[in-house]
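Design job #97: recover the sequence.
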């Protein structure tokens, strides 16, 4: 006997949230940050300009840009005590596990002096998170490799600083290649925000209780880790590697048959989207970046890229995918670009989290600033047992 319930249509209207930050048209494949099309932003701006735009609603002028850069750059170091926090993890811990823990731990360093109802305090916590995420992300990678942590440098751009903290060592003067710096900046821009996706919704729900922003962002990182969400770029590379091992392009037909077999549970990672029922505009831009990086590094005959192009071509022509409106999403090409850049697959989702931190904290700030916001309380449709009497154990 299951529960009887009447469906309240008003229930769904309370499920949506209002925001001025990001607009998506899934049918047209459109994405706008604060009204600007992603294609124009990717062409004319760098990631810190996008951060300023998402937080403040407008693109910065020269002076605003210099001030914002200075504030972010001068918050990139983490409290030295944080370096000991890493020691508690096994060396082979997944970098996402380390990142969730360390970002949550920032609450212990910065939260008690924070009044989230003060707009300046909210902006300072946003600056701290945007500034410290590259440092913590690179530290998670260094800890995993056993190499020493690299301190940030104030004379490098945001993306160049991150690449140096990832790949530099105290023994050499690592100078990141400009194409790789631009490619990373493009990856960060394309992943910066995406309306009310699963991890952003988590950050909003956590924030609606008044939890501090560092704890809320840690909750967002945990949600992003799932393979159906931000973990898809890592899962996509694992999928391409598996197909490669089983014979590569010649074996694609067998793999596609497995994807079509519902019982196999096999998904075409990097394809499909809850909202886009057209080509993800970010995937198109990521594909361009992929070409640029592979061309610059002389990897154009990279078998994985050739395999990815073949997979995309088949999926765009095959009725199974066309009927279900399954197009490549941002994760399909971002994994290949990062692999070409020498970033290990275990770091792909960490870099997605790095990029999305500004979107999360902008959406969190928008919610906290709303005087009418209340604690989130999703309702349920009860389908369980109707009320019944407890039987004493001798009668059960
Ligand atoms: C991100 O929300 C966001 O904005 C997220 C994100 C962001 O920026 O925050 O864009 C980032 O998470 C991108 C998505 C990354 N995930 C993946 O690439 C994993 C593979 N994709 C799927 O798991 C899936 O497409 C989802 C989870 C993304 C969407 O799942 P849905 O909502 O179930 O997809 P759907 O309703 O469009 O599915 C329609 C049909 C179903 O089959 P039928 O029941 O109709 O027969 O298509 C099937 C699905 O089973 N399907 C797939 C598939 N995706 C959907 N079949 C094979 N391979 C796939 N990838």
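Job complete. Output follows.
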């Amino acid at each position: 006997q299951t529960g009887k319930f009447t469906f309240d249509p008003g229930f769904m209207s309370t499920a949506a949230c209002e925001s001025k930050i990001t607009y998506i048209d899934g049918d047209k494949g459109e994405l706008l940050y604060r009204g600007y099309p992603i294609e124009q932003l990717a062409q004319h701006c760098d990631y810190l300009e996008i951060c300023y735009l998402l937080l403040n609603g407008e693109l910065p002028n020269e002076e605003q840009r210099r001030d914002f850069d200075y504030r972010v750059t001068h918050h990139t170091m983490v409290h030295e005590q944080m370096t000991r926090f890493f020691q508690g993890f096994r060396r082979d811990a997944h970098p996402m596990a380390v990142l969730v823990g360390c970002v949550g731990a920032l609450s212990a360093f910065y939260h008690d002096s924070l009044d989230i109802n003060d707009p300046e305090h909210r902006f300072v916590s946003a600056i701290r998170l945007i500034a410290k995420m590259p440092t913590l992300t690179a530290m998670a990678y260094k800890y995993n490799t056993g190499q020493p942590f690299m301190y940030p440098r104030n004379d490098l751009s945001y993306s160049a600083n991150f690449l140096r903290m990832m790949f530099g060592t105290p023994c050499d003067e690592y100078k990141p290649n400009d194409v790789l710096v631009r490619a990373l900046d493009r990856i960060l821009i394309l992943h910066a925000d995406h309306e009310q996706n699963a991890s952003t919704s988590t950050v909003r729900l956590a924030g609606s209780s008044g939890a501090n922003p560092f704890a809320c962002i840690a909750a967002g990182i945990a949600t992003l880790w799932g393979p159906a969400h931000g973990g898809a770029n890592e899962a996509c590379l694992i999928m391409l590697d598996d197909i490669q091992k089983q014979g590569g392009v010649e074996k694609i037909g067998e793999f596609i048959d497995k994807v079509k077999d519902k019982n196999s549970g096999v998904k075409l990672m990097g394809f499909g989207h809850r909202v886009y029922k057209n080509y993800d505009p970010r995937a198109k831009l990521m594909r361009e970046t992929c070409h640029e990086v592979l061309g610059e590094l002389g990897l154009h005959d990279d078998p994985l890229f050739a395999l990815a192009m073949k997979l995309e071509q088949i999926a765009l022509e095959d009725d199974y995918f066309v009927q279900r409106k399954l197009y490549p999403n941002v994760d399909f090409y971002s994994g290949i670009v990062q692999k070409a850049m020498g970033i290990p697959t275990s770091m792909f989702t960490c870099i997605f989290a790095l990029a999305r931190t500004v979107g999360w904290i902008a959406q969190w700030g928008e919610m906290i600033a709303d005087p009418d916001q209340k604690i989130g309380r999703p309702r349920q449709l009860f389908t369980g047992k109707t009320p019944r009497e407890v039987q004493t154990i001798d009668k059960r």
